[in-house]
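Why do we bother with a discrete structure alphabet at all? Because it lets us treat a fold like text: something you can write down, compare, and reason about line by line. To make this less abstract, here is a complete entry for AraC family transcriptional regulator. Read it the way you would read a sentence in a foreign language you are learning: slowly, and without expecting to understand everything at once.
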Amino acid sequence: MEKNGDTLPGRSEKNRTRFWRSEYLPGVLFLDGTFLDMKFTRHSHETYAFGVIESGALAFRYRGEDVVASEGMLGMVVPGEVHDGHPALGRGWRYRMAYADPESVRTLTGEPGGKDRGLPFIGRGALESRELAALFRRLIGGLQAGTMDRLTASSLWTAFISELFGRFGEYPAAAPRTSRGSVRAACAFLRENMTRNISLDELAALSSLSPWHFLRTFRDETGLPPHAYLTQLRVRKAERLLRAGHSPSMAAAEAGFADQSHLTRWFRRIVGATPAAFLKEMSPAGARHSRSEGENGHGQ
């Protein structure tokens, strides 16, 4: 049975992380992590990311601001928002994170009567709430200790999400922009052709924009230049392939990387571990309702 404590499992003396899941909350991936000198490159998540900083301080660039989440604070990233991550003021950090499927969050935050307001949004990357931090810790601790039943776990998770978005969330109405359609088409093209050697001219022609205008528009919309966006797509595909049991070399080829070493370099910068380490730690853990998904993992 898993126990949570100050010392987290891992090979590295500096950066140690562990992913795990609970069958009680199938739409959530949890992470216990310690990072003393890790610097995550700019990236985004397909999920919501919530967490509590247990010690130290995490700094990251988020939505045009330099954010610092220190001990006791909640860290927050919404799907698709580009950010990085590194120690604040030369210090490392330890945190507990939850990566939640957007559709599950949408369901939990829907209005009575089933009205769909879309995906909720929180603009701030660091939040202060002792009550929410305590609720999150209670959920994590109970799941890891194996002392929590399904009803309690789902109730605490629902209470956390509802209170978090009820207090800090919003549903902004996005103003339509003519550039959005062309960027969306380019993103879809990159997803469908990630193994190809795509040129900027090709993407610009697809969007009916000059290469310079397309480059500026794409970065304004996605937060990343096209080549970095494509690299992230390839890393996320490789991650899914590794989860399915494919070897790192096969994942590299299928995701469009030149070779395994190229995958390894970028996988570590975005996910926080080598593909081989990530794959090795995918075996079930001994807990009744949780399992390990990586000694090193997703990262900030």
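What the structure line is telling us, in plain words: Strands lie at 15-22, 28-35, 40-43, 48-62, 65-70, 74-77, 83-87, 93-100, 126-127, 290-292. The mean pLDDT is 83.
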